[in-house]
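How it folds
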Amino acid sequence: MPSLSHLLRSRRRVLALCAVPVAALLAVTAFAPLPFSVAQPGITANVLGTYQGERVITVGGAEPRRSEGELLMTTIAATSPDTTVRLPDVVRSWFSTDRAVMPRDSVYPVGDTPEEIREHTSAQMEQSQNEAVTAALNELNRSPDGVEVDLRLEDVGGPSAGLLFTLGVIAKLDGDGRGGSLTGGRTIAGTGTIDVDGDVGPVGGVPLKTQAAARDGATVFLVPEAECDDARVDLPEGLRLIPVGDLDGALDALEALADGESVPACPA
């Protein structure tokens, strides 16, 4: 019968032999490209003002209202589609509150080259702007034949600024509808798609967008209802979340906020 010491030596040899392929696998994995993108808080832009020297919203055929406060659309900044992301990048990002690891396909769902992706996100932005203007004019019962609205936001793609564009157009044309400012003088940020009927949809990357909003002075963040849970992750102190499901809900919440009344909140 083998002695205890012999059994222990045999076990150590087996473990050592098993460790060789495991170590090799880990070494290969550490240097292999992974199908992820690393994202961080991106730029914000006040849709009531200018961006890169150009006015974001220009209104023709109607006298634009003087706007107080700010409406900040928010973005994330992700590694480019041709950037190689490896295991150490992923591990570092997982332990950082201002970084997020996202499946590459969720950031760049269409296209294999940077040029194809730029074309796709630009097309998304153009469609989002058109729907945002239509939603705003529908809300105000105004005809596009009498009011011309031009939206410009260079170097920003995707549909996630739709809600803020719509609110910006309404702020320019009608304020809060009672002679005051839609923002109540506050710096309000947010995100969310919007369709011509005024329905607000989810976007993604919300925890990073709340950080960008707080960094740039926002005290209120409008978030699609479906993303309340995401928005609470690493929520910056002092930033108030207001969930919205549609344009009417967003306008009602802003009116209540200005009047000091209770507003919707993300459930705990």
The longest helix spans residues 4-31.
